[in-house]
What does this fold into?
Amino acid sequence: MIATHDEHPRTDGAMIETHDLRRTFKARRGDVEAVAGVDLRVAAGELFGFLGPNGAGKTTTLRMLATLLPPTGGDAIVAGCDLRREPQHVRERIGYVGQRGSTDPAITGRTELVFQGRLYGMSAAQAKRRADDLLVVLELEAAADRPTGTYSGGQRRRLDIGLGLIHGPQVLFLDEPTTGLDPQSRARLWDEVRRLRDGGTTVFLTTHYLEEADALCDRLAIIDHGRIVAEGTPDQLKRQIAGDIVTLGITGDPQAALDLLGCQPFVRETGAEDGALRLYVDRGETAMPAILRLLDGAGLELRTISLTRPSLDDVFLRQTGRSLREPAA
Amino acid sequence: MKTLRDTWLVFQRNLGLTLRNPAWSVIGVVQPLLYLLLFAPLLKSIATAQGFPSGGAYNVFVPGLLIQLGLFGAAFVGFSLIAEVRYGVVERLQVTPVSRLALLLGRALRDVLILLIQSLMLVLLSLPFGLDIHPAGLLVVLGLLALIGLLMASCSYALALWLKSEDALAPFLTTVTLPLLLLSGVLLPLSLAPAWLRHIAAFNPLAYAVDAARAIFNDHLGDTSVIKGIAITAALAIIALVVSARSFGRTVA
It folds into this structure.
């Protein structure tokens, strides 16, 4: 029943590829373009993040890629299968964990896992064995035979992920996997997701947490108003925006230091305020020793020096003009 | 083959959920039982009136009660589905390769099974009152009830997926089921009705099912009303199954 993965050899390294993917919703006051032409390429084995504020089109894109929502435009290849023409093949190869949970509160975790396995064509014995394995890996053995209604938020989320993994999918889609979790459960879930990626599963997750995108993802796309506004590794993104910022406290005349450093090739931009000198440089860790040498050679005395890296919020701010930081996020 | 297997899996899961609270299924029989105890005796005195069908009060009334049980027993099954949509269970199932028809059929067949058990209980409880039915007739009536169960459950699930809210589904179902019931001749035979009422009732498919059930209880298995009732119910059940199965394939949230 589970088809062999070799019969669709169209992947050429990409696990997900979309071209001008669109989704328009009909609304009373005209059409709303929730996803307005998304082009994506996620390599096999990658941990890819979709970062954006609520309502940016993250979930809509994810639901389209998971066959839950038909696109109104464009097309996509997921796990080697055409999303529009072969949704059934896509379903056999992917796992999807929605935001809202996915279990019946009256049914035990083990029963849910076994049922899920059976739906993917496993025999009762196979499904039971697979459920047992997952319960161990996800540390849910103690709760396995309790109804899921009694689970903690973290336990329920881990069970949701277990359900998405039951058939060993090539891609796992996670929609805001850590929203609503306490910091401990979140850290635990991050470890879980990294383990998955290390095991070879491609993971595509959405998040509106900057820290999560930064700490977890190999590569990410920033989406706003249904469009991708930036894409790359977290480091690339941050670097492409502003570079690093070196802040200097100089004893004496800051202007002399500014004249000296401002013309160096590694300094992109300078700024001064309250006697502190700000230098925007490409790579702070290599610029700092050079700055120290130059100042020393010119006999300028340095009081303080600090290096700050731009956050993904700076990236988002620069691209969209808005901050992603929400109060009490 | 896959659809059969999937249907069986979905059926098992949903039957398990029902059997968690078997009390609800038993309570479903209480209402028709009350009619049997508190309303049917009234019919005894008018069973001889002009226009009242032959066969005795209970052989006329119990078939109607069974159809009513089928109507109300299966019409409200959509509520459990709305809860499942809210839990995210339906969306989770839609991401799997499970057959969309099986998602409907597994549930609807569970409802049919419960309905048939309830119907048998009602028939058995009616025997001491003087109900008289042939075993072959009983089988045909159960078959008719299974079709009504499939029809009503499919409609209820399709409506649930469409409305997605208990607050909308409850008034909707009440508004639809009450005229269906009144115009079906369940409580009093439509043969007692004035002509204009009978003309309206001619558009109610349930009225044909009631006619069929009464003919069966009167040992007229070969009657055209039996064939007509079963054919109309079967055709509607198939349409409802197709429409509802398609709504299980659509986006739910």
Summary: Residues 1-11 of chain A have pLDDT under 50 and may be disordered. Chain A touches chain B at residues 1, 63, 66-70, 88, 91-92, 94-96, 98, 100-107, 111, 115-116, 118-121, 163 (CB under 8 Å). Chain A has eleven helices and 14 strands.
